[in-house]
Amino acid sequence: EFKMTDPDEVARRWGERKSKPNMNYDKLSRALRYYYDKNIMTKVHGKRYAYKFDFHGIAQALQPHPPESSLYKYPSDLPYMGSYHAHPQKMNFVAPHPPALPVTSSSFFAAPNPYWNSPTGGIYPNTRLPTSHMPSHLGTYY
């Protein structure tokens, strides 16, 4: 745990280091949120200008972690790209199709289904088509 005896001087030096000439303690305290989020340091509750380092968090921050966004940053880093252009006949990105089912005309177009041959149509069996003696709503001009 440590306490800043001159927070304005600390902020000024922090600003010099970060090339921010207008740095003050208010801005510095906002900038320290990064270190809070990474569990590198914490503010001591109830004490003004008092902070504490979290050595477990520092050890975690020092561990080398490959950045996720740059894991495959360039296409040449992709595992399939190197051999794709050199040997395209060896690469198969599509799963093989199952063998086609044998279709014979006698079994596929076998006896007609009564659905298609019914006089009422099958989909809406109780509907009737309008007959010619019904009046038209369009009038005589059409």
List keywords for this structure.
Arc Repressor Mutant, subunit A; sequence-specific DNA binding; mainly alpha; Ets_dom; 142 residues; WH_DNA-bd_sf; elongated; single chain; nucleus; 6% strand; three-stranded antiparallel sheet; Transcriptional regulator ERG isoform 1
- The assigned CATH architecture of the domain at 2-62 is Orthogonal Bundle
- Class computed from helices, strands and strand pairing: mainly alpha
- Which homologous superfamily in CATH is the superfamily of the domain at 2-62? Winged helix-like DNA-binding domain superfamily/Winged helix DNA-binding domain
Q: How is the largest sheet built, in terms of strand order?
A: 1-3-2
Rg calculated over all Cα atoms: 39 Å
| CATH class group of the domain at 2-62 | Mainly Alpha
Per DSSP, what share of the residues sits in E-state strands of 2 or more residues? 5-15%
Shape: elongated
Describe the protein.
It is a single chain. The protein is mainly alpha-helical and 142 residues long. The chain has a domain at 2-62: Arc Repressor Mutant, subunit A (Orthogonal Bundle), CATH 1.10.10. The protein has seven helices and three strands. It has helices at residues 7-17, 25-31, 33-37, 55-62, 81-86, 105-108, 114-117; strands at 2-3, 41-43, 50-53. The chain has a three-stranded antiparallel sheet with strand order 1-3-2. A hairpin with a 6-residue loop joins β2 (41-43) and β3. The longest helix is centred in the first third of the chain and has 11 residues, at 7-17. The radius of gyration is 39 Å and the shape is elongated. The model has no long low-confidence stretch (mean pLDDT 72). GO terms for molecular function: DNA-binding transcription factor activity; sequence-specific DNA binding. Residues 1-54 form the ETS domain. Belongs to the ETS family. Keywords: DNA-binding, Nucleus. It comes from Macaca mulatta.
